[in-house]
Amino acid sequence: MKNTTSRTLELTIISGESISHPGKRPIKKNAYVTINTESNNEQLSTALDADNGSYPYWSQKFIVDMPMHATFFTLEVRCRNGSGDQAVASARVPVSDFTRWCFPNSYLHFLSYRLRDRYGERNGIINFSVKVLSSSSENVGDAGGCSAYSSPVTGWKHGGGGMGHGVAQGVVIGVPYRY
């Protein structure tokens, strides 16, 4: 029997950009990503990227079981060197960035997030994709709990309205911005 208090995600860690060690020294090799959720019973991490330096490429897929009450998950870029593993940068990803809108289950979201080091300074970008495979809202319809907005012709329907009138609230998600 399926646990209705969790959602299953397909999370693909794709790549990183401009990642450096503390002190702005570029990473040369052995970067990897760990995935942390509020209920991590097991450590999820990518393989080491030994070839691409500050622009690591993983393209590794994970199936992650997250509780419905989880508000975010964390992606942490780490580097393995002679003295052990070192945390380089991380990004907290709000679950609402891919569950808030009325997209059908199994809709593939491609996201890029700004990484921050332990002092809060910018330290590169991480690119990943996420797809909600199943959740407790599946029994409501194909639109991930938004069956009231579902249309048999198009699959889903835009809520209408203009910017700032209760639809989008003027929020842009998943797009890095240099400031």
Overview of the structural elements:
With 179 residues, the protein is an all-beta fold. It has a single domain, classed as Immunoglobulin-like. The chain is 2% helix and 41% strand. It is built from one helix and eight strands. It has a four-stranded antiparallel sheet, with no helix packed on it. Strands 3-2-5-6 form a four-stranded antiparallel sheet.
What low-confidence regions span 5 or more consecutive residues with pLDDT below 50? Answer: 138-145, 147-171
Assign the CATH architecture: Sandwich
Distance between the termini: 48 Å
Major beta-sheet overview: 4 strands, antiparallel
Mean pLDDT rating: 79
Pfam families: C2
Domain C2: 1-108
InterPro entries: C2_dom (IPR000008), C2_domain_sf (IPR035892), C2_SRC2/BAP (IPR044750)
Protein name: C2 domain-containing protein
SSE arrangement:
Elements: E1 6-17, E2 31-36, E3 44-45, E4 57-67, E5 72-81, E6 84-94, H1 96-99, E7 108-116, E8 122-134
Antiparallel strand pairs: 1-4, 1-8, 2-3, 2-5, 5-6, 7-8
Summarize the structure.
2% of the residues lie in helices and 41% in strands. It is mainly β and 179 residues long.
Defining traits:
2% helix, Immunoglobulin-like, single chain, C2 domain-containing protein, 8 strands, C2_SRC2/BAP, mainly beta, 179 residues, C2_dom, C2_domain_sf, four-stranded antiparallel sheet
